[in-house]
Prior knowledge:
alpha+beta; globular; GNAT_dom
Amino acid sequence: MYYKKLVGRKCYLSPIDVEDYEKYTEWVNDMEIGVGMIFSASLITETKEKEILERLADSEYNFAIIDKENDKLIGNIGFPKLDKINRVAELGIFIGDKEYWGKGYGVEAIKLLLDFGFSILNLHNIYLKVFEYNKPARRCYKKVGFKEVGRLREAKQIAGKRYDEISMDILATEYDSIYIKELIEKKMK
């Protein structure tokens, strides 16, 4: 069951449904989806994935990404690390359903989460890490407004070649609320 916590034009963010563990298990064991992610070298069983989803669902700010048109689960997004004192959070995302790659769902899900992070949680800085070879993800992050702020050189070895891990971030002053601002304006009428 999904709940529309943050709603965009193409997708919405819902609390994670632990009963989706079979779909997540399929995705995280698909090398094309997981290549270069932290779980790519792991063998993840349904039992292990259910435990992971239970932990994510119990933490405050992790969401399922749901196609608004048909209520279909397509991935997840959230803040796996959140420093409330300094108002800094790490963003993590993956689109597990390959049919949705390159169609703007990741961009919209990130914008929804950024809007929530900056407008509701009052965060100051949201950052992420991405491997150099993941050009589609890097384009997506730049499109949303993330800027490259550093590199850990040759941090990832895969298929006999070394790649940089790129750090990117965006500040609250660099992001203009879209979704939350619209909700507030509706309430003001």
